[in-house]
Design goal:
Blueprint lengths: L9 H15 L32 H11 L3 H12 L11 E2 L7 E6 L4 E6 L5 E2 L12 H17 L2 H6 L1 H13 L22 E2 H17 L3 H17 L9 E3 L3 E3 L6 H8 L5 H11 L38 H13 L3 H16 L27 H14 L5
Helix pairs in contact: 1-13, 2-3, 2-4, 2-13, 4-6, 4-7, 7-8, 7-9, 9-10, 9-11, 11-12, 11-13, 12-13
Length: about 400
């Protein structure tokens, strides 16, 4: 049984152990291969029993496993994911061995046509089927962040030197996606709908952050220079007076009317907003109750009911929800601003939701104001538990790793 950090109070300590033993560790499955872990503690819940998602879920769970002392499994998983690096430096956002070499066709009634999702001969999925190719840069960004997490935990210079052969092309590919103006194109960074075409604010923040990590990992100031260019572009183009622009649409222009969004948390967390912008923004979002959907943080926007059908490309609204990935950004931003109590209160909210569900969490939670609280209910999903562990160590205990 996992032992919770001694600094946690009994309520959070109980939740920490449940997140570890009943979720993140339970998702490990050496029957697939040593180091494999599912996105769900119960892999029959959805998303494939032997599928890996380097696009985000992999990085969240892998870092949690590092904090839980499972370095060997994480290094084995890293070796597995890096073997899918394409010649041009692209990492797949999903790896589905059972569908290797096939093409999945997804039919969208709203478009009256089918969209292809080719799966490479190695099982890697390098391009999303959804119009606008959401998750375009997510896998490479996560890959760099995961390299940083491993190195911070191990301080193994020999390991880092040996990874240069994969980190260099993965970083170069990511830098090549940044325009001369300092923007990264593509759909939503870590969600499919709203698609956030063509320039998503969270994308700009996370890519710049990953490139700063790469600058240190590779000892390459050119990476930091690109990140600086992105920061300067963000400060010019993603500010709407008292909050951040959510995304810049090629037809509708800057979109910033859905209240406060995850972009606001990301801009503070990653230092993309100016100190003056943060001084305006922080008092407005610090205690904003509408980021809490159905009792849990963190929703992607404080006015979810205002999204129009075209922003969802006339499909479902599955990603218009509270998700662990957004909660992590909130906790990160609160840590940057020195709001330790705010981080703790968010952990308590997540704890209460998990306890009420036998120490299991859904993938998404919906706002009462959208009137759709049950449209997409995958249970035993490891994102909230993994981020609980990450948030405790990074933003409550203040670890340097």
């Amino acid at each position: 049984m996992t032992t919770a950090p001694s600094q946690l109070d009994p309520e959070l300590a109980e939740a920490y152990v449940a997140c570890a033993d009943l979720n993140v560790l339970k998702a490990l499955n050496p029957k697939i291969f040593f180091g494999y872990f599912s996105v769900c503690a119960d892999p029959t819940q959805g998303h494939g029993s032997n599928t890996t998602y380097p696009g985000l879920d992999w990085g969240q769970s892998a870092e949690a496993l590092l904090w839980l002392g499972r370095k060997a499994e994480v290094l084995a998983s890293w070796d597995y994911v890096k073997s899918f690096l394409r010649e041009d430096g692209l990492i797949p956002f999903a790896i589905t061995p059972d569908q290797a070499g096939t093409t999945v066709w997804v039919e969208l009634a709203a478009y009256k046509e089918k969209f292809p999702m080719p799966i490479a001969a190695n099982g890697g999925i390098y391009k999303h089927w959804f119009p606008g190719n959401p998750l375009f840069v997510l896998a490479n960004t996560t890959f760099l962040q995961m390299a940083d997490a491993i190195y911070r935990h191990t301080s193994d210079r020999a390991w880092l030197a040996a990874q240069r052969a994969v980190l260099r092309p993965a970083t170069d590919w990511l830098m090549q996606q940044v325009s001369a103006e300092g923007l990264v194109p593509g759909g939503g960074f870590y969600l499919e709908r709203p698609s956030r075409l063509d320039y998503d604010g969270v994308t700009q923040c996370y890519v710049a952050h990953a490139l700063r990590l790469a600058a240190s990992l590779l000892d390459d100031p050119a990476c930091a220079a690109v990140a600086d260019r992105m920061r300067d572009a963000f400060r010019r183009k993603f500010w709407a007076g008292d909050h951040c622009v959510e995304y810049i649409n090629p037809e509708h222009g800057p979109i910033s009317h859905h209240g406060f969004t995850d972009v606001d948390w990301a801009a503070i967390a990653t230092g993309m907003a100016t100190p003056e912008q943060i001084a305006v923004l922080w008092p407005k979002i610090r205690a904003e109750p509408d980021f809490v959907y159905n009792g849990i943080p963190t929703g992607i926007a404080t006015r979810p009911e205002t999204y129009e059908a075209w922003e969802m490309q006339n499909l479902d609204r599955h990603d218009l929800a509270a998700m662990g990935r957004v909660w992590y950004l909130e906790a990160w931003a609160r840590s940057v601003m020195g709001d330790r109590e705010g981080v703790l209160e968010s952990l308590r909210k997540v704890t209460r939701k998990g306890r009420a569900n036998n120490w299991s969490w859904h993938e998404r939670y919906y706002s009462e104001r959208t009137g759709d609280l049950s449209s997409y209910r995958i249970n035993t999903y490891c994102e909230y538990p993994a981020n609980f562990i990450r948030i405790v160590h990074r933003f409550v205990l203040g670890a340097q790793k």
